[in-house]
């Protein structure tokens, strides 16, 4: 497991949540706190899904952890948009 500590996970989660919200078109609806929450929960979701398919998520490193958080956050935002029926406003 990475020895990032809580501050490291907040930073990685915040960056992943922000990039995922830009990618999914929900950045205007979210603030920094929600981006961090989405990134951290997305990391947990991404790690869980990768473990289900047999990927070793513990030994992945920093870049792998960031990409896992990013993918999980994008999936989470997609599911939220699917359930709530919200469309991005551009």
Descriptive overview:
With 90 residues, the chain is an all-alpha fold. Helices cover 71% and strands 0% of the residues. It has 3 helices and no strands. It has helices spanning 5-24, 32-52, 62-84. The model has no long low-confidence stretch (mean pLDDT 81).
Secondary-structure topology with pairs:
Elements: H1 5-24, H2 32-52, H3 62-84
Helix pairs in contact: 1-2, 1-3, 2-3
Q: How does the helix and strand content classify structurally?
A: mainly alpha
Beta strand %: under 5%
Largest sheet: none
Number of helices: 3
Radius of gyration: 13 Å
Low-pLDDT runs of 5+ residues are: none
Can you tell me the overall shape? globular
Mean pLDDT: 81
Number of strands: 0
- SSE run: HHH
Summary keywords:
90 residues; mainly alpha; globular
Give a concise summary.
By secondary structure, this protein is an all-alpha fold.
């Amino acid at each position: 497991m990475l020895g990032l500590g809580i501050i490291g996970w907040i930073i990685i989660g915040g960056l992943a949540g922000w990039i995922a919200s830009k990618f999914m078109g929900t950045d205007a609806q979210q603030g920094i706190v929600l981006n961090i929450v989405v990134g951290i929960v997305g990391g947990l979701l991404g790690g869980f899904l990768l473990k289900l398919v047999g990927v070793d998520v513990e030994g992945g490193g920093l870049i792998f952890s960031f990409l896992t958080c990013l993918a999980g956050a994008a999936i989470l935002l997609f599911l939220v948009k699917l359930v709530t029926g919200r469309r991005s406003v551009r």
